[in-house]
Design a protein that fits this description.
445 residues; alpha+beta; D-amino Acid Aminotransferase, Chain A, domain 1; D-amino Acid Aminotransferase, Chain A, domain 2; ten-stranded mixed β-sheet; nine-stranded mixed β-sheet; 24 strands; globular; disordered N terminus; disordered C terminus
Length: 445
């Protein structure tokens, strides 16, 4: 387990003047509701990344010639924040998302983003909007970091300017009616990606290319598409937007990362967990003919997909060239269920984190007035804190203590004072009822 504490970016926080109404937790869906704030940071050639800020979630204003609209120079990531039964906030392997961001950036000619900056941006935004994390079983706060090229030009070249943004969306349980296996359609006409292309990058073009096949599958009554390789149309690659696993006669087989398959973080986590249980996990090419052959022999025991949204998704049947094979009588397999329970248990804090995958996020309580107690402002170990200027939101305290109590994101300005104290202005509005004695915050006994 890791706790965020290293300060890298000086993030300016400007809070929204009004808070949106929180949604009904039973009606969340996926990616349709967004929180009060967003993170934004700009990149300019010659200057690098600059001006990181958290501000009100709002519309963007961009030049119509911005290169992202014309040549698709963009990337995105996806991860989640989870609320534990004890009220703690967990991020699941955000360092892996940061590393994959830079692999994608390299392929799409986007500027590299320091891993610690990525994690800090995500962590501090989640800390500010922590009260948007739903607590109903299976719910979470989806985190969408993304980078877009913003240079206003129709020339075909890497952009000279970019925006890195992070937005948050409370999402409902993926399986509202339980973990039920789905039916998939093996797509042999359209392809998702080709080796040497951008299949292993997290970029929007991959997903646009997959829509036609997904629509075809849904029209035929199937939940998802099983993608085959683009060259020979015979080797299994991905299922929908997820990685795929087969349990064949006790062995776990998953397609190797060949350059056209996205290196999923849940995929990697699943492999590590399965190996720790003693399973033989083999990463290799596997043809759709072999899959149907072992199904015919009765040794295809389980099939499941892995990804951020569903975590683990059991597959109950596969249709290919007029033949449909049912897997495990359309029932979830024992290994699939155990893997789902383990991964989600680690994410929600009910299962011990044996691999050190969880990063803790501490809520910025000073920004959430209805949850802040007066004792949180005791930064100089006395019974009262002098308020130098209530309108300018300035207090006096020692730097280390103030950072520990408030976090760097709410410290707007610092001036040196006598006795090693600092005059510190905070981006926080103090309610009038906190000052019964005039210009001092009174600490409770």
């Amino acid at each position: 387990m890791k706790t965020r504490g290293l300060i890298m970016l000086n993030i300016k926080v400007t809070l929204s003047n009004e808070s949106k109404e929180k949604p009904n937790p039973d009606e969340l869906g996926f990616g349709q509701i967004f929180t009060d704030h967003m993170f934004v940071m700009t990149y300019d050639e010659g200057q690098g990344w600059h001006d990181p800020m958290i501000k009100k979630y709002e519309d963007l204003s961009m030049d119509p010639s911005a290169c992202v609209f014309h040549y698709g120079q963009e990337m995105f990531e996806g991860l989640k924040a989870y609320k534990t039964a004890e009220g703690e906030i967990n991020l699941f392997r955000p360092d892996m998302n940061a590393k994959r961001t830079n692999r994608t950036n390299d392929r799409i000619c986007l500027p590299q983003l320091p891993i610690e900056d990525f994690i800090q941006a995500v962590s501090e935004l989640v800390a500010v909007d922590h009260d948007w994390i739903p607590t109903a079983p299976g719910t979470s706060l989806y985190i969408r970091p993304f980078i877009i090229g913003t240079e206003p030009t129709l020339m075909v070249h890497p952009s000279m300017s970019y925006e890195f943004m992070v937005i948050l969306s409370p999402v409902g349980a993926y399986y509202k009616e339980g973990l039920n296996p789905v039916k998939i359609f093996v797509e042999d006409e359209y392809v998702r990606a080709v080796k040497g292309g951008v299949g292993e990058a997290k970029t929007g073009g991959n997903y646009a290319a997959s829509l036609k096949g997904q629509m075809r599958a849904k029209e035929l009554g199937y939940a998802q598409v099983l993608w085959l390789d683009a060259v020979e149309r015979k080797y299994v690659e991905e299922v929908g937007t997820s990685n795929i696993f087969f349990k064949i006669d006790g062995e776990i087989v998953t397609p190797e990362l060949s350059g056209s398959i996205l290196p999923g973080i849940t995929r990697d986590s699943s492999i590590q967990v399965l190996k720790s249980w003693g399973y033989t996990v083999t990463e290799r090419r596997i043809s759709i003919a072999e899959v149907f052959e072992v199904a015919e022999k009765g040794i295809l025991e389980e099939v499941f997909g892995t990804g951020t949204a569903a975590v683990v998704s059991p597959i109950g049947s596969m249709f290919y060239e007029g033949v449909e094979h049912v897997v495990n009588d359309m029932l979830i397999g024992e290994t699939t269920q155990r893997l789902y329970d383990t991964l989600t248990g680690v994410q929600y804090g009910s299962v011990k984190d044996e691999f050190g995958w969880i990063t803790k996020v501490k809520p910025v309580e000073a920004l959430v007035m209805n949850e802040t107690r007066l004792k949180d402002f005791d930064v100089i170990d006395s019974v009262e804190i002098e308020l130098i200027d209530k309108k300018k939101r300035t207090i006096v305290g020692k730097a280390a203590a103030v950072k520990a109590k408030f976090g760097s994101s709410v410290i707007a300005d610092v001036k040196k004072k006598a006795n090693d104290n600092l005059e510190i202005r905070l981006d926080v509005t103090f309610p009038d009822d906190w000052f019964p004695g005039g210009t001092y915050i009174r600490m409770p006994e």
